[in-house]
Design a protein that fits this description.
One of its GO terms (biological process) is NAD+ biosynthetic process. With about 260 residues, the protein is of the alpha/beta class. Helices cover about 30% and strands about 30% of the residues. The longest helix is centred in the last third of the chain and has 15 residues.
Length: about 260
Amino acid sequence: MQHVAMVGYGAIGSHLMRMFAADARVRLDQVIVGATGLKKAQAALGDGVAIVTRLEDLPRRPDVLIECASHRALTEHVVPALASGIDSIILSIGALANDGMAELLAEAANAGSSRLKLVSGAIGAIDALAAAQLGGLDEVVYVGSKPPSSWRGSPGESVVCLDSLAEATTLFKGSARDAARLYPKNANVAAALALAGLGLDATQVRLVADPSLSHNVHSYTAQGRFGRMSFTIEGMALPDNPKTSALTACSLARALINRVEPMGF
Ligand SMILES: NC(=O)C1=CN([C@@H]2O[C@H](COP(=O)(O)OP(=O)(O)OC[C@H]3O[C@@H](n4cnc5c(N)ncnc54)[C@H](OP(=O)(O)O)[C@@H]3O)[C@@H](O)[C@H]2O)C=CC1
Ligand SMILES: O=C([O-])CC(=O)C(=O)O
């Protein structure tokens, strides 16, 4: 049994709460939310879960902190958690494209002798890509395609009219670094692939709005001295957030289970 503090109670957070409601391995018993989300979380979660807005207000020291909130949550909550010795697992990986963020996280982990884990989220085969990076990797090309509704609130809205899109249209083409900065809620996968493989500047990214899709499709190819690989996933979106694939929550759940199981993937 491990006690987990969770940052963010949105589409992924509420999904994880349901997943672990009756699981003896993981107790999600503390949640950090933004001030505006306090009432909603209190009404949904009841008395069994401590809900606070600051890390220092958590009533007990968690065994691990998980983040399913936003890029800014890393500076607000994950950096101080790591610095105080709490292992952390994050999903908002695109934040590492911001200047100095990776260094800040690493310094905090070193200062607290804690570990930061980046999980694969909505994508897969990151283990193969990270291994290929050691075996000679020359090119990584990622394409993230989602239905038009998944791009609402993003800069894609000024590229096309999402409501009347008739065919698949590229919203962004460029580096993983620029994708992660411009599309913080849609390009965490691009950043994860980049950090596992060729880096944020050399990883090529295309983001596409496609009215023919009902899933979020993530696809990439990689090649180099190690050989050649390709991976595609059609991920079902979470009902509360069309931008977010359900596998993302499962990836965080798997990372938590792996901390307590004697063996596993
Ligand atoms: N690595 C990957 O493959 C993927 C990563 N993600 C990322 O995971 C994160 C969560 O996704 P999802 O659940 O769908 O998003 P939602 O928008 O549904 O939920 C996020 C919740 O976190 C809250 N929140 C945001 N910032 C903070 C903060 N600083 N402190 C406390 N709470 C905060 C939000 O509150 P409020 O609305 O009040 O700000 C909201 O309730 C996002 O950053 C998303 O981009 C998502 C999919 C894939
Ligand atoms: O959940 C997804 O499909 C991917 C996503 O939003 C991201 O990469 O940020």
